[in-house]
Each structure stands twice: as C-alpha cells, then as structure tokens.
Design brief:
Blueprint lengths: L3 H18 L20 H14 L2 H17 L4 H22 L13 H4 L6 H41 L6 H7 L4 H12 L3 H18 L4 H7 L5 H12 L3 H9 L1
Helix pairs in contact: 2-3, 2-4, 3-6, 4-6, 6-8, 9-12
Length: about 260
C-alpha cells in the first residue's frame, strides 16, 4: 500500500508514453524512456539549423529539421525529454529572430508561449508537425524582416565606415551602431554588398590612401591616417590592392 502512490504515477507516465507513441498493447514503466540519452551530434544539428536561419536558407532549414527529428525519433525518447529538446530548439530560434533587431517580437505575438502550447499536444506526430510549423513561421518572419531592414541598415553602416575608417573600426562597433547582432549583421552585409565587412573597410581605406598619396602625403603618415598602425601591414595590403607599393604609387604623381 505504501508504494501505491508511486505505482499510480508510474502507470500514468506509461499511459502517456503509450498514447504519445501511439503504441498498442502493454506498456511497462521500465521501458518508458529506456534510453534517455540525447544523440551526441544533436548540438551540431542545432548549430546547422541556427546557421540556416541566420543565412536565410529556408530549404536548408527544412533539410536540417528533418535530420534533427529523425535523430530524435531513433532514440524513442519519453515525451518529457523529447519536449525538452524541441523546446530548446524553439527558444534558440527565437533568439535568432531577436538578433534581427533588439526590439523585434517573434512571430508578432507577445503572448507566444511555446512551453505552454506544447503541453496540449498528445501524439509524437502532432508534436513534430507543431515544431516544424513554429520553425517555419520564425523563418518566414526573419525573411520578411531582412527585406524590410537590409538596405537601410547596410547603407547606414557604409556611411559610418566611410566617416570613421581611420579608427580601429570593428565589426562589433558597426553592428551596434545599426542595432544588430554582429553575426547576423556580418551575413546581411555580405549579402547586400557582395563582399565581407572587412574587405569593404579595406577598400575604403585603400581608396583614401591613394588619394592622400596623390596629394603628396608621406607614406608613413598615410598609413596612420587610414587606420593602420603597422606600416608593413599597410604596405602589403596596398600592394595587393593596387599592384605596387605605396612609395611607388606616390612617385608616379611626384614626377
């Protein structure tokens, strides 16, 4: 009799497991969640899904979701553990949505509470379907937001770079200036401009260096004025950019 409450709870868990997995016949409590360990490569799948969201790869996200769910399905996890894994991924995805802009509310719903909604789901198939729907909605919201803010944010960043190119201008600083997460801003910038942030900054600096050299500025001073503390590094970049060393370029216009 002392074990009756415990047995009752175990029976409820076994019943829920059987209903959730849509299995017929006798379900033993000892078999519920027999292998609760999460696959070792799931974190990699999670990272892949996050990367697809950040890069706007909708088809890639769908493919990664299928792999993610297949791996979970192979483990025959009990409902509670399975819900935990899917909820973790949902909340990671929500953070990616917020990266687009600090004040953005996911899916335009301030009452979006997946940890509550998920408890109403009774079968594994419905749970997987719900998970995919949530991820698709967030992806669609991301793509719409990217179209809305991409041009404005990148144009603002370019103006900032051209104004302060001579400073030790980091990606972090420029991303904060336009109100974006650095990782997301980096992807967005490359998509809009067709080149990376650092390459764009280097090009701006090299063009300004050419202008100063044509005006007769000393090579050592030009290096400092365009944001390079190491003359050697500046000289290597300049030669790569123009095909000649800074001194050679300046001599052309001194003649």
């Amino acid at each position: 009799m002392e074990d009756a409450p415990k047995s009752y709870q175990e029976a409820l868990q076994a019943l829920r497991y059987g209903q959730f997995m849509q299995e017929n016949g006798l379900i033993r409590f000892e078999d519920v969640g027999k292998n609760p360990n999460i696959p070792m490569n799931l974190p990699e799948q999670e990272e892949n899904m996050i990367f697809c969201m950040r890069s706007g790869d909708q088809e890639g996200l769908r493919e990664q979701m299928q792999r993610f769910l297949k791996q979970l399905d192979q483990q025959r996890l009990n409902p509670d553990i399975l819900e935990q894994e899917l909820l973790k991924m949902i909340y990671l995805a929500l953070e990616v949505v917020k990266e687009v802009h600090k004040d953005m509310i996911a899916i335009n719903d301030p009452h979006y509470l997946p940890h509550i909604h998920i408890r109403a789901i009774r079968t594994k198939e419905d749970l997987y379907r719900w998970f995919q729907e949530q991820m698709e909605k967030m992806m669609e919201r991301l793509l719409a937001a990217r179209r809305e803010i991409k041009h404005e944010a990148v144009a603002k960043a370019c103006d900032y770079i051209e104004k302060y190119y001579f400073r030790d201008l980091t990606l972090q600083e420029v991303a904060e200036y336009v109100g974006m997460n650095p990782a997301y801003f980096s992807l967005l910038f490359k998509e809009e401009m067709g080149q990376s942030y650092i390459k764009y900054l280097t090009n701006v600096r090299m063009e300004q260096a050419k202008k100063l050299l044509r005006e007769g500025e000393k090579v050592s001073e030009v290096s400092q004025k365009v944001g390079y503390h190491s003359y050697r590094h500046f000289s290597e970049l300049f030669k790569k950019y123009t095909g000649m060393k800074p001194g050679q370029y300046r001599d052309i216009f001194d003649q």
